[in-house]
Structure formats: C-alpha cells, structure tokens
C-alpha cells in the first residue's frame, strides 16, 4: 500500500515540475528533463520492489527495445507533421510506436536496439537542428487544464504498467518502461502552442536525453545484482544526468559555432 501511494505522489509531482520548467525556460530544457530516464527509473524501481531484481533485469532488453521504438516514433512524428496535421500525426505515431516496440523487443535483440536508438538519436538531433528556432519573446497561451491532464495521464500509465507487470512478464514490462509518458504530452502541447519550432526544440532535448537513458539501463544491468536497488538506481541516474548535460553542452557549443 505504501508503494501505491508513492506512485500517486511522485509521478504527478515530476510531471508538474517538468511542465513548469518547460514553460519558464523553453522547450529544449523541457525536452532534456523529460528525456531523462525519470519514468523509466520509477518503473524499474517499482518492478524491483514488487517483482524482484531478477524480473527487473529481465526487463532491461525490452526497455532498450522500447527506447529504440520511442526514438523511431519521434522521428516519424517530426517528418510526418511536414505533411499531416497534428491530430492525424499523433494517431499514426501511437500506432507506429506499438508496431516498432513489438518488433524491437521480439525480433531486435539488445545490441540492435542500442544501435538503432543511437542512429535515430543522431537523425533527430540533426533534423531538429534544421527546424526554425523558437521565438524566445513569444509567450504561448497556456490553458489551466494542460498540466493537470499531463499529471493524470503520466500517473495512470505508470500505475497500469507496474500493476500488470506480473501478467505482462519482464519483456513486455520493460518495453513499456521507456514510454514517453511525460515527454510525449509535452511534445504535442509544444507543437500546438509553439508550432514546429517549439516541437522541434522539445524533440531535440528528448533525443539528447535518450543517450542518458541508454546509459541508465546498461548501468542497471551491470550493477543491480551487486549493489542493490537504491544504490544502483542512484548511480544509474547520476550517470544519465552527467552524460545528458555533457552532450547538451557539446552540441550547444557546436551549434553556436
């Protein structure tokens, strides 16, 4: 019961904080924050506590397959919205995610998933860099129901994923762990409010953060059995944050030059 209330508390608070940061400092920072393995860390933590470390380790290959599918979905959405409206592109992107995630987790393999994810991260960073930059002086209108809706959707998906874990099994649970439950609503809302420039900045931030997500899962696989849940999660998150900040800094200098 304690874990149940913890899920209800932590997830919406994270979504609320990231949404406010995105409003205050722009889509790129919002993308970076939402691209970090926040939802993944929550899912993996609860899988460890509720299903055991062996179950969580079995979920890692599926999680990396799911991450590759996430990057494929962002790529699909970025290019599809050049021809399609937002509603149609979102519907097709959700369907595309399901197909890609199933393919990667059942037929891809660990190394293929990592390789495809890194390739698509490069494509997203390059393609989003060619989009117009957001107008920092423009202030998009924010509706009062946006952040509550994001908080509810993020919490509901986390509850569903962890509650059904024993029935879904480690592979499928892992596949669902990196679903961008925080990032995806941010991307769509940024597109609606800020146009392609706002959406591209959010996607770019998420792609940069995905490098940290890969590091997070690899650290989980290497350290969990030796160091335990709390220390492994802490070290894996620290590694993910460090890599994300370093890559963001390098790309910012490269883009400015």
Describe this structure in words.
The chain is an all-alpha fold and 257 residues long. It has one domain (36-132, 146-256). It has helices at 2-25, 27-35, 38-51, 53-80, 86-108, 110-129, 146-163, 165-176, 183-227, 229-256. The chain is globular and about 45 Å long.
Secondary structure layout:
Blueprint: H1 2-25, H2 27-35, H3 38-51, H4 53-80, H5 86-108, H6 110-129, H7 146-163, H8 165-176, H9 183-227, H10 229-256
Shape type:
globular
| Total of domains | 1
Q: Based on DSSP secondary structure assignment, what is the total number of beta strands? A: 0
The average pLDDT value, as a whole number, equals: 75
The end-to-end span amounts to 53 Å
* Structural category: mainly alpha
Give the biggest sheet.
none
What is the H/E string?
Answer: HHHHHHHHHH
The multimeric state of the shown protein is single chain
Number of helices, where a helix is a run of at least 4 consecutive DSSP H or I residues: 10
Which runs of at least 5 residues are low in confidence (pLDDT < 50)? none
Strand percentage: under 5%
Q: Over all CA atoms, what is the radius of gyration? A: 17 Å
Helix content: over 70%
């Amino acid at each position: 019961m304690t874990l149940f209330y913890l899920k209800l508390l932590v997830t919406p608070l994270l979504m609320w904080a990231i949404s406010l940061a995105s409003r205050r400092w722009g889509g790129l920072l919002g993308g970076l924050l939402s691209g970090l393995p926040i939802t993944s860390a929550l899912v993996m933590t609860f899988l460890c506590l509720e299903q055991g470390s062996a179950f969580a380790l079995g979920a890692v290959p599926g999680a990396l397959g799911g991450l590759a599918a996430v990057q494929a979905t962002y790529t699909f959405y970025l290019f599809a919205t050049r021809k399609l409206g937002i509603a149609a592109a979102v519907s097709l992107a959700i369907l595309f995610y399901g197909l890609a995630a199933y393919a990667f987790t059942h037929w891809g393999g660990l190394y293929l998933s990592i390789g495809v994810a890194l390739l698509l991260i490069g494509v997203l960073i390059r393609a989003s860099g060619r989009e117009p930059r957001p107008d920092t002086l423009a202030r998009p209108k924010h509706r009062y129901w946006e952040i509550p809706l994001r908080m509810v959707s993020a919490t509901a998906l986390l509850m569903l994923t962890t509650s059904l874990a024993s029935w879904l099994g480690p592979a499928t649970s892992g596949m669902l762990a990196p679903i961008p439950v925080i990032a995806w609503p941010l991307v769509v809302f940024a597109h609606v409010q800020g146009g392609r420039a706002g959406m591209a900045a959010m996607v770019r931030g998420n792609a940069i953060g995905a490098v940290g997500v890969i590091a997070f899962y690899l650290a989980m696989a290497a350290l969990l059995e030796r160091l335990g849940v709390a220390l492994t999660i802490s070290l894996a998150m620290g590694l993910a944050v460090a890599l994300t900040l370093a890559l963001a800094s390098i790309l910012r200098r490269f883009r400015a030059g």
